[in-house]
Amino acid sequence: MASLFFINSQINSIHYSIHVMNQRLEQKRNDLQRLNTASTQLSNCKSEFINQKDLCLKPELMANSWHGQLANNFDTYRQSELQVSYLTLPNEQLANTISQLEDKISEIRAEIESLQSGIASHNSRLHSLYDQRREELSRSE
């Protein structure tokens, strides 16, 4: 009878462990979905930034609005410094952030696989305990 009590105790413990693991699995799946959405949105922002790079050069300077050496210096500044600085946002900062998100996504995928494997292992152990309990009950009859 003590053996039956021990088996039932293990069954309850494994049920609880599976329940906790399923909750963590659901949370990780939600996290993964949110990170995938964020990654997609950031990739879209990066593309939009790159597509809008010419905004740094606007408005174009016309001979009748501003001309001479100062106008040439200003245009050179916009092309060589302002636009280059602008492009560091998508090419460096957003690219680094997207890379960090992709790393986190890979990490969460690995955690999900680990949880799924753990749940499968616990389910296998649970079935084994059910078999042991049936044997123990048939012996006590």
Automatic annotation (TrEMBL):
Residues 91-118 form a coiled coil. It comes from the Bacteria. Keywords: Coiled coil. InterPro entries: YwqH-like. Pfam families: YwqH-like. This is DUF5082 domain-containing protein. It comes from Oceanobacillus halophilus.
